[in-house]
Amino acid sequence: MRDGIQDIYLRLDAFYSLDDWWHSESKLEVILGSILTQNTNWKNVERSILNIKSVRAMSINKLIKMDAPSIKSLILPSGFYNQKTNTIKGILIAIKNRYGTINNMSKMSTKELHEFLLNLKGIGNETADSILLYAFNKPVFVIDAYTKRIISRIYNINQKIRYEDLQDIFMTSLRRDPKFYKRMHAYFIELAKSNCIKNNPKCNSCVLNAICNYANLQKNNVR
Ligand code: SF4
Questions:
Q1: Taking the model in full, what pTM does it have?
Q2: pLDDT digit string, tens, across residues 4-56
């Protein structure tokens, strides 16, 4: 599978002209976005981020001081607002106590930040790694549901493959560079929306058609 990941990257890279899909104005915005995106779509995250900006609350100190009902009302569009309010409060207070500022976190090692984030309530692997890659530009590949779906179809493997195992395959196959990881992630998001959709994927027009087990099985079933 390791050789194949490089091949997948090259095929997608020849087809798409994407780079970093996540255009944020600050590290705090990325941290909030990584939490708000849990179990919802990106449009809802954007609405919540806009709400926070509209009351000029995109500041760690302001959000820490803000009471929970006010935060809930701002992040309402993202759903699960009780849980997400607690996670946001928890991470911001922990950052303030341990590092003082978000900028100070940038000087820390990937290992230190990874352990810090995973010890916080409401932060799992995907959220922690999104923060590491997109807020702090650390070389950590993010595994999301799109990645799992695409890879499980290409290699005919169970989507329940462990997060760490799949991540290890990507990180030992691709150059250890946040730029490549962001690009590959952007390609997968694009592919999962355009072709490798949840039901009835559009394999005929997919750039990975020739190397995909799922597509081959479909072709054989038609014959
Ligand atoms: S060929 Fe089909 S199943 Fe395979 S990655 Fe493309 S859209 Fe998904």
A1: 0.93
A2: 999 999 999 999 887 767 788 899 999 999 999 999 999 999 999 999 999 99
- Asked if residues 139 and 117 have their Cβ atoms less than 8 Å apart, the reply is no
Which tokens in the block code for residue 53?
């900006």
CATH numeric code, 2-19+142-222: 1.10.1670.10
For domain 27-135, give the fold.
Endonuclease III; domain 1 (1.10.340)
Q: Domain extents for the chain? A: 2-19+142-222, 27-135
Q: Which atom belonging to ligand 1 lies closest to the Cα atom of 150? A: 5
- Written as six digits, the tokens of 49 are 């981020």
Ligand 1 pocket by C-beta < 6 Å: which residues? Answer: 150, 153-154, 195-196, 201-203, 206, 208-209, 212, 214-215
Could you tell me which residues come within 8 angstroms of residue 8 by beta carbon, excluding any fewer than 6 positions away?
A: 154, 208, 211
Q: Best mutation site among 9, 204, 206, 213 for ligand 1, i.e. most ligand atoms within 8 A of its Cβ?
A: 206
